[in-house]
Design a protein that fits this description.
The protein is mainly alpha-helical. It is built from 4 helices and 2 strands; from the N terminus they run H-H-H-E-E-H.
Length: 97
């Protein structure tokens, strides 16, 4: 029995249970089904069948972020330098300030 056939059979059984007016336990025992199996199918068939959809995706080229080094003085000025500044040059600059 395929999964879709099994689902169809249990859909009919769940419908019969709902029309019977019996509890799940009483219906399962009357029909000779495991109680847990009836509960499982009631829960499974009550959930909406969600079919995942594919969404179109557009890839944009990444724009590299420009990292900067900011120096702020106590007097209020700010100096923004690109992160590619050589460390030796920056050290010389700081010694001069």
């Amino acid at each position: 029995m395929t999964n879709s056939e099994r689902e169809t059979v249990w859909q009919e059984r769940v419908t019969q249970w709902q029309r019977s007016g019996l509890s799940q336990r009483a219906y399962a025992m009357e029909q000779g089904f495991p109680v847990r199996q009836v509960g499982y199918w009631v829960r499974r068939l009550a959930k909406p069948q969600v079919v995942p959809a594919l969404l179109p995706v557009r890839l944009a080229p990444m724009v590299p972020a420009v990292a900067t080094i900011s120096l702020r003085s106590e007097r209020g000025w700010t100096l923004a330098l690109p992160s590619e500044v050589p460390a030796s040059w920056l050290a010389e600059l700081l010694r001069g300030l």
